[in-house]
Amino acid sequence: MWYHTVFSELVNTKYPMVQAPMAGIGTTALAGTVSECGLLGSMGCAEMTVPQLYDTALTLREITDAPFNLNFFAHSEPDNYHQVDSVLIETLTPLYEKHSLPFPKVPLSAENTSFTEEKLKAVLEIKPKVISFHFGLPDTHALDALRNEGCLILCSATTVDEAVYLEKRGVDAIIAQGWEAGGHRGSFKVDNSDAGIGTMALVPQIVDKVRLPVIAAGGIGDGRGIAAAMLLGASGVQMGSAFLGCPETALPEAYATAIRQALETDTRLTRGFSGRPARAQQNLYTRSFLDQSFKLPNFPLMYEYSEPLIDVSTANGDDKYAYHLYGQAASLNRGLPAAQFIEGLINEVNKLLNR
Amino acid sequence: MWYHTVFSELVNTKYPMVQAPMAGIGTTALAGTVSECGLLGSMGCAEMTVPQLYDTALTLREITDAPFNLNFFAHSEPDNYHQVDSVLIETLTPLYEKHSLPFPKVPLSAENTSFTEEKLKAVLEIKPKVISFHFGLPDTHALDALRNEGCLILCSATTVDEAVYLEKRGVDAIIAQGWEAGGHRGSFKVDNSDAGIGTMALVPQIVDKVRLPVIAAGGIGDGRGIAAAMLLGASGVQMGSAFLGCPETALPEAYATAIRQALETDTRLTRGFSGRPARAQQNLYTRSFLDQSFKLPNFPLMYEYSEPLIDVSTANGDDKYAYHLYGQAASLNRGLPAAQFIEGLINEVNKLLNR
């Protein structure tokens, strides 16, 4: 069967399919159901406090005994708390004034979204079957500790070089994240060097250069995408936007509407929300950042400028400044409960690959 | 067999595979061999004179009796012969001065690369099995005349809307050109509206919205890509960069070296060469256009600024200003003669799809 792969064997799931962690969007109801259905459910934990981490794991384990994945961001500390580019101020001041919002003051502050020592300690106690990282990896001490507790380590790569680096650091599988993917690009560096490699091109080129199992991500929305990714040489797939149509995700109404009406042309990569490139619905807010030649506060400091405006759109239920992350194949979502959606996916791939 | 599709039946080839037309790069030796091997060989004819068109068809018919495709650009006349943005002049003057080149003078001039009445007349006499268009379609009078002579009409689409428009205009098949593809984007409009849809996301979304056969293009470099595209719902594939490794292509040495050493991260979309977005190797020249907020001369007038510098690199055999078009999966090329390369491709897909 197509679904017996080195990856499904490694993580001990029936299907070699990962539900993408979607920090701030995903729910334990979704991840738990997905894991219970034989896929790898994931929780985006980057923005969680330590008590929330324990709660999340507890809730997941009430739903399922199956393996799940906790996802974290591995990023360096922002270094520009005190400097703000005057062009950024000029760009955002009219929007702040229009909504009578106080303009953020330096020094900027942000929640610590990196993989701190206290989060590591919690994960070592929780012992998830899988932990995955985005933006690169934490230090060797953390990786060794996780391995010693039996956690499998996954990380995203957006280029062949990043994949080769991850293999050298000893991860267990690589998520090849193509240009089409919604949410944050996993690219290690934030500069102008991102070539934006599409999934169709990225997967076989990574597969050829590493020995590890490769999970294809980006633009995979239904059974056709899963089957295609497997034939590209992937050992599994990761899907995010496809699950945004599931009622378990519990999206705010404006976001749910955006997903129901999604078009392939809706989204753009923007640094305007967090400081790092993320694929989100293009709107009034992201259009102000089309020319990104000016320097933005580093991830995640930029949220201090975007969040007050995001809140305006949330309150009004509109899209103007909304932070609606999704990928280029989001239109393929079915709007079905997760279990039913997954059953349909598996049937589609069975038909395509077991002829 | 996977290769019996509505598309291979329509164009009467053994395999549902198109060798991409590569204006200025492809050769009759390549296209003729490809057609003789049972695929659809193509010639990029946009820059040819009428006598060259007749010569090309004659040479192809000496090599093969099989169907071939003649490709043309359908674009409106440039409207800015007389205006040149001062930022463009500032950007390029240092490069022109460095190489003691005379700076191009307004009014700009350009060869007529659009599908003129005299080119139409020649094609109606040549009667190729297939004619394909890029950047949109010519007028209804031309399409009707081509249909009356029995020519099948293909055209590229980079979005669902473009594909739906092409279907309404009565084309016979749609080339779904993904973000990964080398060379010119087929997008109809040149503005900031291109969302850059990757092949993995684009193909199924177009397949769901049109009844016509869809040919997947972009990032398809070997049997894995072909098999994947077929499972996405495509009725065929188009491959360009993969054929740039074939000796029949007869690339200049620096270009051939670039293809041999290609990395997935090499290329960027740039308007700096022709005025329209094209995926080319990033170099000193393309980097000067990273900020493309200033207005460039319309396609193909911009060539008047790029060609003198391209010629410098051609003479020096270097990459600095070179016009090396290729896609994100060019590294998968095998450097084999076309017939041998094609035989290998077919074997790979047979193994992947006929299990």
CATH architecture assignment of the largest domain in chain A: Alpha-Beta Barrel
SSE ordering of chain A: HEHEHEHHEHEHEEHEHEHEEHHH
Instruction: Determine and state the CATH class of the largest domain in chain A.
Output: Alpha Beta
Category from helices, strands and their pairing of chain A: alpha/beta
What does this entry look like structurally?
Two copies of one chain form a homodimer. The first copy, chain A, is an alpha/beta fold. The first copy, chain A, has two domains: 6-75 and 113-256 and 334-353, Alpha-Beta Barrel (TIM Barrel), CATH 3.20.20; 77-111 and 267-325, no CATH class. In chain A, 37% of the residues lie in helices and 13% in strands. Chain A has 13 helices and eleven strands. Chain A has helices at residues 6-11, 28-36, 50-63, 86-98, 117-126, 140-148, 160-168, 199-207, 223-231, 253-260, 284-287, 303-316, 338-353; strands spanning 17-19, 41-44, 68-73, 130-134, 152-157, 173-177, 183-184, 214-217, 236-239, 267-270, 278-281. In chain A, the strands form two sheets. Chain A has an eight-stranded parallel sheet with strand order 1-9-8-6-5-4-3-2. A three-stranded antiparallel sheet of chain A has the order 7-11-10, with no helix packed on it. Chain A is globular, with a radius of gyration of 19 Å. The mean pLDDT of chain A is 96.
